[in-house]
Amino acid sequence: MRILIGEDETIIRLDLRGLLERAGYEVCAEARDGREAVDLAHEHEPDLAILDVKMPNIDGIEAARMITAERPIPIVLLTAYGGPELVARAVGAGVFGYIVKPFREIEIVPALELAWARHTDWLETRRDLGRTVGAAPVDVVVEGKARWPLRIARRVDGSIDVTLNEEPG
What we know:
Number of helices: 5
Number of strands: 8
Number of domains: 2
Order of helices and strands: EHEHEHEHEHEEE
Shape: globular
């Protein structure tokens, strides 16, 4: 697995690199800020990214959003902040893992492997859904803290339209 590290603190970035390499991962790029992380993700096409939330220029959550908009990869956030609003932003950006600093070495590999597995499942579900959505719309209910009834339909041009279904059937 090729990994991009986005961390503005040099000592943490170097520690992460060493830890990841000892665990058998390849660190393909290191960024010191969010903008650099986005640029390096575009250039190196990593399999996964670990991003600090509080970075200069663009924060890690916005960088995650920009990276996955171009090419969906699992993103794991590494941060000293764990407030509910930050976690909600991370979820909204499609982040697959969240590690709170100070972290222990034994926490990193399981978090990465879990993010990788969840992302793989997500991609497969997306592919399956794309195959099953035909001309007739499909109604799906996503449950969590709230209930989100969605209507999924294929447009004439072949793209998929996902809308909030105001009247669940």
